[in-house]
Structure formats: C-alpha cells, structure tokens
Specification:
The complex is a heterodimer. By secondary structure, chain A is of the alpha+beta class. Chain A folds into 3 domains: 259 residues, no CATH class; 62 residues; 60 residues. Chain A is 38% helix and 21% strand. In chain A, the strands form 4 sheets. Chain A has a 9-stranded mixed β-sheet. A 3-stranded antiparallel β-sheet of chain A has the order 5-4-15, with no helix packed on it. In chain A, helix 3 links the parallel strand 12 and strand 13. The N and C termini of chain A lie far apart (73 Å). Chain B is an alpha/beta fold. Chain B has a domain of 291 residues: Alpha-Beta Complex (Amidase signature (AS) enzymes), CATH 3.90.1300. Chain B has 16 helices and 11 strands. In chain B, strands 1-3-2-4-6-5-10-11-9-7-8 form an 11-stranded mixed β-sheet, sandwiched between helices. The model of chain B has no long low-confidence stretch (mean pLDDT 97). The chains are: A alpha+beta, B alpha/beta.
C-alpha cells in the first residue's frame, strides 16, 4: 500500500500573499478584496515576505533542502474561483524539497514544500454559484509527501505528527485544511482530490483502502483515476479517469523576480516528538505520555523541559494534566513548580489554588492530622442530626461536606467520602 | 535644444485654449482614429495622452478590446499618477492594436490612419500615441512597447519614440501583454521632451516588483554598429537612404562599425514564442463576469460561459491565445517556450558585447510606410517579420529610440538607435545632437498659437 499526501495549509499572516488585504475570514462576502486578489487588469502581485518566512520555517522543520532563491510559476486552468485563471504557485524553484517527517517506524519523505495563493470560495445557492473572494490570495503552503505511508495507522500518525510540528511554527491545521490523497493498493495511482478536514481525510483513506483492497483480492487492478470524497456517505466516487497527466501550461511568473530567502529568520526548529524523546531519555519519563502532553501545547513543553530534572515524573505529569483542566494561562515556571511540590505532598490541585498562584497570593493548604479531619467531619455531621437519617435514603446528602473538607484540606474527594462513611458508621454504631 | 513642453509652460494661453484644442482634436480624430477617449474636461496643464492599455482611474481602459468594454479601473497606473503629480493634464486614451497585438494599428475596431496620408498605416501597436504626437504641437504621449510597438508607429508617423530599459519604468497599471517584455515608453516631437517625460516617470515603484532604481547613464559614444544580418531583409530604397544617413553621420565624426551577428535571427521566433506564451496566460482572466464585457446568460455551464465571453476577442488575439497555449503545453514546452528563454539569454549576452563600446543603428522598419489596403493582403507571418529590426532590443530589454531622418514621397522614415541597459540618456544625447542639423516635419499642429 502506498499513500502520499498533498496538504494545503493556510499560513498565519495578517495580509494576503500578493496584496495588503486582510486574511481574516469574515462572514460578509467580498469585503477583504482589492484589484490584485480580484485579478483586475493592470494589477500585479507583490510578494508578502512574512509568508515566505513561515514557509521557510516549515521547510526547515521538515528537514528540507531550503532554496536560497525561490521563484514562482503560473499554473493555468479555468474555474470561476480563480480570478486570473491562473494560480501563482511554485514547482522546481519551490522553497523546500527532499525533506522528511519521522514517525514511529520510518521517515516519510517530503517531496516539496511550495508557496501558493488560495483561490476564492464558491458558495452554491439554488442554481447559482456565488463567489466570495475574501479567501482569494490567502497564502498557502502545499506540503507534498512521497508515497511512503503504508498503512492507515501510519497515515494517522503522519497526519497528527505533521499537525503537531506545524503547531509549533504557529500554523494551525484546522478542519478547513484541504488535502489531495494519493492512494494505491495496486499498480496505478488513485487520487482523491480536495478532501476537507483531517477527519474526512482518514475516512476517505479508510474507504479507499477497503474499496481497492476488495478489487485486489479479486485478482484485479484498481484503475488510474481521480475520485472525490462525499462527506455524507463517507465514500469516494470516480470523477475522472486519468488517461494522461493534467495540462497546466506552466510558465514562469514574469511579474515576480527571484526572491532571496537566506536573510529570513526562522528560529530554532522545535520537533515535538524529538523533544518528547529527549525528555524521556534524559529523565526517564514515559515517551508516550510526554508526547501526548506536548503535541499541541507549547506551554506544557516549556514547563516540562524546565522541571523534568527537579521532580519525580508522577508529580510533574499529574500537575501538567491538572493544569489542562483549569484556566492556567500565565501560570509561569515558578508557579508551576509550586504546584508540583504541592502535588508531591498529596494536595489535590483545584482551580482556586491555580488562580491563587496565578494572582501571586500566598497559597497555603492546611495540612491536617487524621484526628483534625475526623473532628471537622464529625462537627459538620452533628450540626444537623437529620443528616444521618437522610443519609440512609440518599447518600448524596453528604456531598456538600465532601466538597468543604476536600477544599479546606486539599484532599481527594474520594478519600474524604470514605472517611465520612467510616465516621457515619461509627456514629450509628454508638 | 527644442522643448515643446517648456515652451508650453511659459506660453500665455488664451481662455478657451483647451476647448478649442479638444474640439479640433475631436474632428481630426474622426478621420485618423487616434483616440478611444478624449477628455473634454481638460482645463489645465500640458496635455498628455495615455495608450489605452494603461489604467486611468475612472476612465474606461480597454486596450482597444471589445472584451474590456466598460472596464473602469479604480486606480491610476503609476506612470499616469506621476504625470498628474507633475501637473500634466489628462487628455485621453489613445487607440492601439488590441492588447498590443499588431504592427500596423489595424487590429482595432477603428483602424488607425497615418496623419501624413490617411490611406497609409500609422504603425502599431501604439498607433494613437504616434498620431496624437504628430498632430499636436504641445503634447506628451505615454506609449508602450513589447516588440516594437513604440518604434514602428513613431517611424511611420514621423515622431520621436523612446523605449526605456526594461524595469526602469513601473508597469503597475499596465494591462499586460507580455510581462517580461512590456516596457512603458514615450513619444514626443523632440528628444528634450522625451527626456522630461522619462525622468518624471522612472524609478522604483513598490507596486511593481520588477521595477528598479537604476543609475541612468549618459555616455558619449563615437562608434555606431550596423549588424549585417539585419540589413538583409531591408527594402532597397530604405537601405539606400539609410546608407546616406550613415555617410552623414560619418561626416559628423561617428565611426561606423559593421559586424556579423548571425544569432540575431533567433530574435523574432524567441520574441513571438515568449510574448505569445505570456499573452495567452494574461488573456486567460477575461471570462466575462468580473469586469469588461459581461456574459448575462447564467444558465450556461462554466466552460460555455467562458467560451461565450471569449468570442469578444479579435482574430489576432485569438490566434495568439492559441499559439501561446500551444508553445507552453507539456509535450512541446522544452522545444519552444524553454528554448526561447535560453535564446533570449544567449542573445542578451551576444548583444551586450557589441554594445559595450558602441550603439546599434538600423532603419526602424524594413519598408517604407505601407498603404492600408496592402496590409490587408499580408499573411500573419509576413506581418510578424516586419518586427525584424525592433524585435531584438525589445526581447533583450535594451533601451532604443526611433526618430525621423528622411522623407520619401512626403512620408517620414525612421532610424533606430539601440544602447546597452541603463544607457537611456545616451540615446537622448545622440538625438539632441541629430536635431541640431535636422528639422522634423508635421502636417498638423493642433494647439499652436
């Protein structure tokens, strides 16, 4: 089985690739537009350097050969969403080539990373096609992999690893992401065009593996063709038999000069699975747990990197997991370490503790002896004698005591409940 | 040095000057078809005209094409805004071969006619710019050349036509023909006026990535080079008169150098392949629903809708779309498009060697001004071959200037000088000197007091 991807990822720039229009995708159609992204005669493209910088960062982190000088080409085809009837994109002089993405058992080759402009959006309404040019000219990077992915599991891992790597560059691979999926169980290449979203990508692959698998099992060969994915039925259907390659009549884009990329600063690449491996080997933490924590959380990676050597694994990990449950933005390294220490002492982290630390208040959780805790529980129970009666009918009546005591002494609710049960038993026995 | 622009600026104009000028222009225009649009509101400044493939804010700009009927750009081309900032007054849009596709001004709904005799061609594709310059005394014309579209009409209409080094003038606002070849230039009645226009317009523009701030040189060349192969296809009468000119220049102290450059034969095929390949992509955007002529039948499929829109192209435009699409198609791209790019690089290298210590000189056109009825009988290839003398400097981005040097049966003849990149001012200095001993003739002098 051979699977290759062509994933089109939107770059997080303020303005479009060739003009100064905002990239913000707003409800109202055709507001973030100008003569350039509408392809008006007389207008011409001016390259957005920030888009090239981000593309270079992607090419770098995917271990590509990065071109010092890039150039653009025109890819010509007629469709109403393409204002100039050609897309400005890259081919041989693309920003990155010959890279790789490491997954568990192999390196998935990256054939090419190319910068290109997004077409407009077609909205079908009744019998009409309406066109919204707000998206026209949004900078994209197309990531083209080699057909190195050999199973559904590898596909899932490759996609999630790629998403995680891109997350660390500030690129969100959202549900809008468009992917062309090449998948062949036989000799010929089948291409599933324009699959929207990560989940659909997996569904499309699942269906196609099953479909082609059945053909191959019958001793036949799946045909070379282009298929499309139907989100409703989660199936693919043939849209075009491929006799020959598509004809795009590429020429060099004569309105853009060669662009020097060597001066663009991209920072140290962060590769999450390499970070997880480092933390795991240096400090003996579980690779899988660490990777899960940091994949889409740069804050966790930072806290973990700085704390791993100082505390034991359980306390660090459980505190990080706790933090994800609460609003912990801006907790800081120092605050985090306080929490880890508390956690190591058996304190249950709560939102009020986190909030306290964030606001810089001195948070002290009263550490009590078993007798003190028992006394506090007994006091609450004796305040309202009917509780004991009600408890026989409905165990939930003591929930408020569980809450109060666990908050006050920083205990696990379950431990408090066990203690209440024990005391009630003792009181009833008396 | 004669400057009509300076003369105009210091001249006392009577009230009603502009009204009378516009009126006379309109009536002469019905005969000669110089203008697609005349600005009746003009009240101030030196009148400047703009080739119809340059955008003027709020004014229909359609490169003489039916497919752009009704296109009113929301912005000025950079060269237009720089002229406005200089205080020049916008006079109108000049006629041209559709999208710049032509040598004789015949590929337009209204055929351009020669101001010396309307039975003759005005040349193209900047026909209107040349006619307007030839009929108005005080006027500045913004024109554009891809493969000879300034030199050819300037020669036939007897005016000075200057095509700058590629990249020195911003192309922002130009309705593209072939982006790697298109150069905005100027026409005028004197070399001095050409210099004024060029200096007002040039310089880097952030809206055109290929534009640059270059140091423009003014070198005093004493050597003029004739490329033997270029003279092979020139009419006997034209070459005889040209030889006489060379004799005169020798007397004025220039050394005439004759060289062989057989590679120059690559210029026409390389020029047509690159220009058609790029043109066919530039024209792809005309699909009939965003601007220009609109298709109203929304029941059509996408492809049928586009097809219907594109019936508005003229014959030559259709021919170039088809040929241009062919030369860049996958199966033949390396044989045509890629090879043409290599030939262009080779030719730039060869020509720069010749231009290192001399300027090139040749007749501008290989023939005397043709009659319009004879042009109709020419095949497309015969028409394309008329660019033999203008194709190489255009293909290679070298600055060149054409100006009148003789009159045959009352019709002007043009000579073309080519210099190395960024030697634009050297060309004007040469022409300044020429004008000291030669007076240009005009049949009309609208605006004269």
């Amino acid at each position: 089985m051979k699977i290759g991807l062509e994933m089109h990822v939107a770059l997080p720039t303020k303005s479009k690739l060739f003009c100064s229009c905002s990239t913000e995708q707003v409800e109202e159609p055709n507001v973030n537009i100008c003569p350039i992204c509408m392809g008006f005669p007389g207008s011409r493209p001016v390259l957005n350097a920030e888009a090239v910088r981000i593309a270079k960062a992607i090419a770098t982190v995917l271990k590509c050969e990065v071109k010092d000088k890039i150039s653009f080409i025109r890819k010509i085809y007629f469709y109403p969403d393409l204002p100039k009837s050609f897309q400005i994109t890259q081919l041989s002089e693309a920003i990155g080539s010959k890279g790789s993405l490491a997954i568990t058992d192999k390196d998935v080759g990256i054939r090419r990373i190319q910068i290109e402009e997004d077409p407009a959006k077609i909205v079908r309404q009744d019998n009409y096609s309406l066109i919204d040019f707000n998206r026209s000219g949004v900078p994209l990077v197309e990531i083209v992999t080699e057909p190195d992915i050999a199973s559904e599991d590898e596909l899932k891992e490759a996609v999630s690893t790629l998403r995680s790597v891109l997350y660390y560059i500030g690129v969100d691979v959202e549900q809008e992401v468009k992917t062309d999926l090449n998948i062949s169980l036989g000799d010929e290449r089948v291409e599933i065009k324009n699959v929207t979203g990560v989940r659909n990508l997996i569904y499309a692959a699942e269906y196609e593996i099953k479909r082609q698998g059945e053909i191959v099992q019958k001793g036949k060969q799946p045909e070379k063709e282009t298929r499309s994915f139907d989100e409703q039925t989660r199936t693919t259907k043939s849209s075009r038999k491929k006799e020959s390659e598509e004809e795009y009549g590429f020429i060099y884009e004569p309105d853009l000069t060669d662009y020097e990329t060597s001066g663009l600063k991209v920072g140290e690449p962060i590769i999450p699975h390499e970070e997880a491996a480092r933390i795991s080997s240096e400090f003996g933490f579980s690779y899988k747990t660490v990777l899960e924590l940091i994949s889409f959380d740069r804050n966790s990676l930072s806290l973990l990197s700085k704390s791993a050597g100082k505390f034991d694994q359980k306390a660090v990990i459980s505190t990080l997991e706790d933090l994800k449950k609460f609003d912990s933005t801006g907790i800081g390294q120092e605050g985090f370490e306080k929490l880890v220490r508390m956690s190591a002492d058996g304190v249950t982290i709560t939102q009020s503790i986190v909030s306290g630390i964030k606001s810089g208040r001195e948070v002290t959780v009263k550490r009590a002896t078993q007798d003190e805790i028992d006394a506090a529980i007994t006091e609450l129970l004796t305040k309202d004698r009917t509780l004991l009666e009600k408890y026989k009918e409905n165990k939930n009546v003591v929930n408020f005591i569980v809450g109060q005591i666990s908050r006050k002494y920083g205990l696990q609710p379950k431990d408090v409940l066990d203690r209440i049960k024990f005391i009630i038993q003792r009181m009833s026995d008396n | 040095m004669k400057s009509y622009i300076k003369e105009f600026e210091s001249m006392d104009k009577p009230s009603g000057y502009y009204t009378e000028l516009v009126g006379n222009l309109e009536s002469l225009n019905t005969e000669l078809n110089a203008f697609n649009v005349i600005n009746k509101e003009l009240k101030d400044g030196l009148p400047f005209s703009v080739k119809d493939n340059l955008c003027v804010k709020g004014v229909e700009s359609r490169a003489s094409s039916k497919i752009l009927k009704g296109y009113i750009p929301p912005f000025d081309a950079t060269v237009v805004s720089r002229f406005k900032e200089k205080g020049f007054g916008f006079l109108g849009k000049t006629n041209m071969d559709e999208f710049g596709f032509g040598t004789f001004g015949t590929n337009s709904e209204k055929m351009a006619r020669n101001p010396f005799d309307p039975a003759y061609t005005a040349g193209g594709s900047s026909s209107g710019a040349a006619i307007a310059t030839s009929i108005m005394k005080y006027h500045a014309a913004i024109a554009e050349s891809t493969g000879g579209s300034i030199s050819a009409p300037a020669a036939f209409c007897g005016v000075v036509g200057f095509t700058p080094t590629y990249g020195v003038i911003s192309r922002h606002g130009l309705i593209d023909y072939s982006n790697s070849l298109d150069k905005i230039g100027f026409m005028s009645r004197s070399s001095a006026d050409t210099r004024i226009m060029f200096d007002a317009a040039r310089g880097r523009d952030p809206k055109d990535s290929t534009s640059l701030d270059a140091e423009i040189k003014n070198t005093k060349y004493t050597k003029l080079t004739v490329i033997n192969q270029l003279m092979d296809g020139v009419d006997k009468d034209v070459s005889d008169r040209f030889e006489k000119l060379l004799g005169k220049l020798e007397q004025q102290g220039f050394a005439i150098n004759r060289v062989d450059l057989p590679e120059i034969s690559a210029a026409i095929p390389a020029y047509y392949i690159i220009s058609m390949a790029e043109a066919s992509t530039n024209l792809a955007r005309y699909t009939g629903f965003k601007y220009g002529a609109k298709v109203e039948d929304f029941s059509l499929s996408y492809n049928d809708f586009f097809k219907q829109a594109r019936t508005n192209f003229g014959t030559e435009a259709k021919r170039r779309v088809i040929l241009g699409t062919f030369v860049r198609s996958a199966s033949v791209r390396s044989k045509y498009y890629n090879k043409a790019l290599k030939l262009r690089a080779m030719l730039i290298d060869r020509m720069k060697r010749v231009l290192a210590d001399s300027m090139l000189i040749s007749p501008t056109m290989p023939v005397k001004t043709p009659r319009l009825d004879l042009i109709e009988k020419l095949t497309p290839v015969q028409v394309y071959s008329m660019d033999v003398l203008t194709a190489s400097p255009n293909l290679c981005g070298f600055p060149h200037i054409s100006f009148p040097y003789d009159y045959a049966d009352g019709m002007p003849l043009g000579v073309q000088i080519v210099a190395d990149h960024f030697q634009d001012h050297s060309l004007m200095s040469f022409t300044d000197k020429w004008e000291e001993s030669f007076e240009y003739k005009f049949k009309h002098n609208l605006g004269e007091l």
